UniProtKB/TrEMBL annotation:
Name assigned to this protein: Prephenate dehydrogenase
Residue ranges occupied by any Prephenate/arogenate dehydrogenase domain in the UniProt entry: 3-292
SUPFAM superfamilies cross-referenced by the UniProt entry: 6-phosphogluconate dehydrogenase C-terminal domain-like, ACT-like, NAD(P)-binding Rossmann-fold domains
Keywords assigned by UniProt, alphabetized: Amino-acid biosynthesis, Aromatic amino acid biosynthesis, NAD, Oxidoreductase, Tyrosine biosynthesis
Annotated source species: Pallidibacillus pasinlerensis
């Protein structure tokens, strides 16, 4: 039977989940957003079927409710939903970056009558809004699920089935553990990225060349600082204690770096420090989405001369490989440059690599 889905928050993540669900299931999707323009856009982009201005009626009809708003807003919506007469078999899930506060509230509001399964796809973007939504955004990424202790196994399987089109790898976690882990690998790096940008801003007030010369390294390490401050303020609020611990840890680490730099006459200690970091990073699943990098990147050596990029773009287009993004790094006039080509899937990356190598390009 055709399922009814209600999506609350029709932005980047909500829109991407809706598209992924549509890919696999014949269902009717209602969309609600405090910004009505976003829901109307979601209808025109065929992400959802109908825009609603009121939650109650579609919520009471829904088999699946997906909450995809900033995490503090999600708590408010959960309280509103708890006052409705929802279907007995309904599953409510969310996509929020934090899980502990949300699961605590779910346990207070629903005790077996309604199923609430916390969710968090570990992939995304610094962009916002439904116009950036993509069905394949979560492909190969981990998708954390934090069920209530009372949630039957079959309900978790039912939710996974509904989310099958995301092509992600589901991982059931305890909410506390989730927030500790994501604090370390997602929330704290966000704070560091923002603080690096602030530091450069301070220096660029004194020397305007600083911003001009900021190149690939600075861009890579600070990309996430361009994410939505609205979304991140809620995440940081809900994971404050883990972030404070991580900050203490980081301050100690920086003191350690400082003392190495002060005493390291021949550079051996700092080289060892960099080597240890490199060794660990190199063991991380670099091609897996949600880890490093967050897209399917292919690096191509090119001679930095007019037409070089067009040639590569043409070869890829002729082979029906779509490019998500293209970037020149380390380009110096007359020398070899590196083209970073971002593709949509791992299959496209492998195919692109094969066809470019057939044309004599060196790729990695
Ligand atoms: N962006 C990422 O990389 C990423 C990845 C995984 C999870 N998340 C989580 O996904 C959620 C959504 O983030 P996003 O990136 O899609 O942001 P977004 O800004 O693209 O979308 C959020 C949408 O929620 C709407 N909204 C805000 N308050 C609302 C309310 N009270 N009722 C209904 N709609 C409301 C906004 O108008 C907006 O359209 C957040 O909880 C975030 O923590 C984000
Ligand atoms: O790729 C990005 O822009 C992200 O920041 C995505 C990212 C992350 O990896 O930290 C950010 C928040 C989410 O909760 C999950 C994923």
């Amino acid at each position: 039977m055709k399922k009814t889905v209600l999506l609350v928050g029709t932005g980047l993540i909500g829109g991407s989940i809706a598209l992924a669900i549509r890919k696999e299931h014949d269902c009717f999707i209602y969309g609600f957003d405090i910004n009505f323009e976003q829901v109307e856009k979601a209808v025109s982009l065929q992400v959802i079927d109908e825009a609603v201005r009121d939650l109650e009626e579609p919520a009471e009809k829904a088999d699946l409710i997906i909450l995809a708003s900033p995490v503090e807003e999600t708590k408010k919506i959960m309280k509103i939903l708890a006052s409705y007469k929802l279907k007995e078999k309904v599953i409510i899930t969310d996509v929020g970056s934090t899980k502990r506060d949300i699961m605590k509230l779910a346990n207070e509001l629903w005790n077996g009558d309604v199923t609430f399964i916390g969710g968090h796809p570990m992939a995304g973007s610094h962009k916002t809004g439904v116009e950036s939504a993509k069905a394949h955004l979560f492909e190969n990424a981990f998708y954390c699920l934090t069920p209530q202790t009372t949630t039957p196994y079959e309900k978790i399987e039912e939710l996974k089935k509904m989310l099958k089109g995301t092509n992600s790898k589901f991982l059931v976690l305890d909410a506390e553990e989730h927030d500790y882990i994501t604090g370390a690998v997602s929330h704290f790096p966000h704070v560091i990225a923002a603080s690096l940008v602030k530091q450069v801003k301070k220096h660029s007030d004194q020397n305007p060349f600083i911003s001009m010369l900021a190149a690939g390294g600075f861009r890579d390490i600070t990309r996430i600082a361009s994410s939505s401050p609205r979304m991140w303020k809620d995440i940081v609020k809900q994971n404050r204690d883990n972030l404070l611990d991580l900050l203490d840890d980081w301050i100690m680490e920086m003191r350690n770096v400082k003392s190495i730099l002060e005493s390291d006459e021949n550079g051996k200690a700092i080289a060892r420090y960099f080597q240890e970091a490199k060794d660990f990073r190199d063991t991380m699943p670099v091609r897996a989405k949600g880890a490093i990098p967050s897209y399917y990147d292919l690096f191509v050596d090119i001679v930095d001369q007019p037409g070089a990029i067009a040639k590569i773009a043409t070869i890829l287009a002729e082979n029906e490989i779509s490019i998500t993004n293209i970037n020149i790094i380390e380009a110096r006039e007359g020398l070899l440059g590196v083209l970073q080509v971002t593709l949509q899937t791992e299959e496209h990356r492998i195919k692109a690599r094969t066809v470019l190598e057939q044309h004599g390009y060196e790729t990695y």
